[in-house]
Amino acid sequence: MKNITTLVMGILLLSATCITFAEENQSISANDFLSLTKSNDEHSKVLLLDVRTVNEFNNGHVPGAINIPVAELPDALAKLGDKSQQIVVYCRSGVRAGRAIHFLEQQGFQNLLHLEGDYLAWEENALPIEKP
Question: Which residues form a coiled coil (predicted)?
Fold first, then answer.
């Protein structure tokens, strides 16, 4: 019983840490992101990373995003390219994006931003949505 209690407490602590991390992480507003991508030149491309599930991504995503579900990130790091590249991460509401950013920082990625409000806010503000 003690081991189960310890495990549950560990999971709760990790979840709280990820949520706090997502809230404290450097973020970018949707409008600033759109401005950044419009002024983007060939040498400073921004990678937009959607860490939701494939089904969520296929139901609609921010235009130009690539989809790597958070659980698949360890096996897909090569798809992200240079560790100094600017990467903007989002999910549905922020929890998975926080976990992804935390993981990517541990892997040495340096220029990570969290899209404020994630996909829910993007959709709520009637910003462009792309479907495959």
Answer: none
